[in-house]
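We modelled the chain as a single entity of 329 amino acids. Its sequence is:
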Amino acid sequence: MSSHPAPDRLSTRRPATLHTVIVAVQIVTRHGVPLEALLRGTGIVPADLAQPDTVISQAQEIIVFANALSASGDSGIGLAIGDAIPVTAYGYRGIAMLTSPTLEVALRLAFSCPLLAICYFDVALHACRDEARVVIGNYVYRPDLLVLNSDVCLAAIRREIFGALGREITLRRVTLAFPAPAHAARYEKLFGCPIQFDAAETALYFAAAELGSPLPLAHPHAFEIARQQCERKEAELAHWMPGDIVGRLLAWLYENPGRQDYDQLGLSLSTLQRRLRSVGTSLSEMRAIVRRDLAVRYSNDKTYSAKKLASKVGFRRTESLNRLLSNDS
């Protein structure tokens, strides 16, 4: 049996606000990348960026990350994106963190609300004797974006810790469960500590004593209100379904990459194509994005022959799959 989760459990039915997309836009456009190139294939239009509470699917956010990586040519762009996300960008989750009594309470609450943050990983806090570590793991999204998503997550957690405390702390080390990438030297510059690649887990290490540090903005009443709001919002997002046309189409395509009918979307083909054009994308582009993602995701699974892999992602012939992948290289 394949160990890969079903695609609809990955990103098409999991929500994300536009906060991280907005930060990515700010960072990447400084590289001279046109906004259109960053938003291509997402269904997000420039006017949406003025409404940061808009909810999109993680699949759409992932396309933004892939575009950022490709268009900027900067393998370390994820570090810059994560480091630019302030605690306050997370709404009630950010308020709850800032008003928590201690750093440990703030982190445990934050990590218990993954849908309110960047949740491409399971995030856990561990403390043993004099050392604490925040571990990110169980990544089940696009393998080609593992490093970028790890960078965004780690840099954002670092920023959260410093933001909640109102000061920087000394990180003891950072371990990364992947080989040194092209931007390896930038980790030590950002985190200010030794970096270990090819490690058993991806984690930030610091003194356990910091967990008991009182937070400067601690406020019991405000914290309780924010904590309850976090619980309610997390429960709402757990039942979220995409409502925009691109989000709905992505969910359908991930489940049915080879299907050519779209009756379940409740739209005629011509109407579907017209609405996609209105948000700057097309049916063929959406199909190519999904098929390319699935091909990369399953290509390392040795149980799939070339023919079986082509069929899995919706092609009748392996030549079509090879052509899709070669066009992306």
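As a brief sanity check on the tokenised model: The radius of gyration is 21 Å. The longest strand covers residues 122-128.
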